[in-house]
Specification:
The complex is a heterodimer of chains A (342) and B (170).
Chain A lengths: L4 E3 L4 H10 L3 E4 L5 H7 L6 E4 L8 E3 L5 E4 L4 H6 L1 H6 L1 H8 L4 H4 L15 H4 L50 H7 L3 E6 L2 E6 L22 E7 L7 E7 L10 E11 L2 E9 L6 E2 L1 H7 L6 H11 L16 H20 L1
Parallel strand pairs in A: 1-3, 2-3
Antiparallel strand pairs in A: 4-5, 5-8, 6-7, 6-8, 9-10, 10-11, 11-12
Chain B lengths: L1 E8 L2 E8 L4 H8 L19 E3 L2 E3 L13 E3 L12 H8 L9 H16 L18 H7 L10 H11 L5
Parallel strand pairs in B: 1-5
Antiparallel strand pairs in B: 1-2, 3-4, 3-5
Classes of the chains: A alpha+beta (342), B alpha+beta (170).
Chain lengths: 342, 170
Amino acid sequence: MKPFAYARPGSVAEAVRDVAAEPAAVFLAGGTNLVDHLKLGVARPDLVVDVRTLTSREISDLPDGGLRLGAASTNSEVAADRRVRERYPVLAEALLAGATGQLRNTATTGGNPLQRTRCVYFQDVTTACNKRDPGSGCSAVGGYTRHHAVLGVPAALPDPTAPETCTATHPSDMAVALAALDAQVQVLGPAGERTIPFADLHRLPGDDPSRDTVLEHGELITALDLPPLPAGARSAYRKVRDRASYAFALVSVAAVVTADGPGSSTVRIALGGVAHKPWRATRAEQVLRGGPLTEDAVRAAMAAELAAAQPQPGIDGGNGFKIPLLTRTVVATLRELVEATR
Amino acid sequence: MDAEITLTVDGAARTLTVDTRTTLLDALRERLGVTSPKKGCDHGQCGACTVLLDGDRALPCLALAVAHDGAEITTADGLAADGELHPVQQAFIDRDAFQCGYCTPGQVCSAVGVLAEVDRGWPSHATEDLTADPQLTHDEVAERMSGNLCRCGAYVNIVPAVQQAGGVQA
């Protein structure tokens, strides 16, 4: 591990100043992802600024009926909070579907969404990876692609030598639920505070796969705000993985359904395990708007959403299975929610 | 770069100077000679190093020692009070819940954490009704203990041991 200086400043503002002043500085919260990446040589900071005990650990009611999750609240605490379990079951279910008890006790509200978008090649410093080492190429193209993206990817076999190629996925379950809930991200940076809609926090590789989010260097998440859901709204998270526990999603679905009247619903859908970011299925949502949530309608909506999907061939058989699996998982999740609202 | 820290380990305050890169696990094992937490994968995947960190089960292999100055750590070695085994330790013996024993200190600490979490009413992925208090069923224990691997495959006895320690007939 490369040597680094460690600092625990006296305030959040000081922590932001410290990181902003040092280009090779990083924030440390629970550390469950960062410490692993320090050991692997994937993260090589000169300065680690510890904010775990600086940001709020409170979960508090907002005047509009929503909930504010302090950045230092742990994944376990948020999943166990009665208000989250009753009002935002999709978030409790997503958190509980992720990692293990030990990790959830350590991982934080601010840190979980900022775990790296990654793949096995990103974690292996002996391989080419545009995300870890910009411009070096992408080893995933035609390699092991089972956990890789099918959405937000330009082609079935993108150019492995192009500097923009990256087919890694964002592995957070929590983030998929937050995208469906239209959470708001409270950020403090060198230029002051700003609020980012959660669905806009993460980015596609674009021309710089090294950047997972739109946060500028020195910007710190201080809280996540959950807006109130409409009366009668139902929400759920469904995760499909290779083993029953402690595995990343092959695909996952977070959904929120609100009945507008007889035969008409508003649906919010976010997909996990399929893109460089938590994928809000806005096209499917548009197709379903105002109509009945029949199985045929949901299948048609998913066909529209997945029209541009690019299954990745690979030496492990590739990940084309994700496309029908996504549709079936959305169908099953919405069926359960519709039945629950009857 | 070095930093001086104090850790309370199994009731005893220990002050030491660590390189900022030192994990809490290496500080315990290599610097303080506390070898109850085992180094299995060293990447948070096996659970063999599980300890109670400020009361909650956690993985010292994924923690920087310098970030936990002042922490209170209980290892499996520190669970027995006045020579009396902790109920979880006794249940592991009663139920023959280990073979080679390498993962056992981590399993025991994790189980102590699980029982406290269930007592607090914390749900898990196996909890059917998120608004109800969870029960210590087989599926609940298996899900909650999924962060602790056992290469001998003693799970079939670990689950009833955790249930026994939690006061459930299994």
